[in-house]
Amino acid sequence: MSPEHKMNVESFNLDHRLVAAPYVRIADTKVLPHGDQLTKYDVRFTQPNVAHLEMDAMHSLEHLFAEASRNHSDAVIDFSPMGCQTGYYLILQGETDIPAALALIEATLTEVLQATEVPAANEVQCGWGANHNLAAAQQAARAFLAQRATWEQVYA
Fold first, then answer.
1. 11, 57, 138, 148: least surrounded by Cβ within 10 Å?
2. Which of 113, 146, 139 is nearest to 56 (CA)?
3. pLDDT tens per residue, range 112-128
4. What is the DSSP letter of 6?
5. CB 45 within 8 A of CB 38
6. What is the number of structural domains in the chain?
């Protein structure tokens, strides 16, 4: 398919060569049949096609963020990794306010830095319980937090 053809998946229409990670952007919003609104945020940790998070760090950060974010907001629906390993999708119910989403991400990652273990990192609660790295996940969180001033700047 040519890059000029509009794809069904929003991120496939994003020119990944033009973005400047780290950043947070609204990737999509949906109003469900009963009026509930969902907002999907692209939380990009690394520069696409240049760098990526290692799988054990990505997996652990997914567990840490998914658990800790719910301490800060009841609006969290999902926090899921991108297959390209450059970031995550954060889905919030009714949240379209970028400052509120950024505050949630900042508070959650700050909590991640205080963790002493990865939640549910075992074969009972996780499909690949041995594939975790707390230190690497915290390093990724630390690096993302250190660039807080750039999160709203999607393009170079």
1. 148
2. 139
3. 999 999 999 999 999 99
4. P
5. no
6. 1
- Residue 1 inside a domain? The answer is no
Quote the CA–CA distance of 125 and 118 in Å, as a whole number.
11
Q: Which domain holds residue 106?
A: 14-147
CA–chain centroid gap for 130, Å, is 22
* Beta carbons within 10 angstroms of residue 155's beta carbon: 9
Is 131 inside a domain boundary? yes
Parallel, antiparallel or unpaired: strands 37-44 and 76-81:
unpaired
Q: Does residue 143 lie in a domain region?
A: yes
Q: Give the bridge partners for 8, in sequence order.
A: none
Does residue 152 sit within a domain? no
Question: What's 18's domain CATH number?
Answer: 3.30.1360.80
- Is the link from the previous residue into 119 a cis peptide, with omega within 30 of 0? no
* Residue 40: C-alpha distances to residues 5, 43, 92, 113, 133 (Å): 22, 9, 7, 24, 26
Dump pLDDT digits (tens) for 92-107: 999 688 999 999 999 9
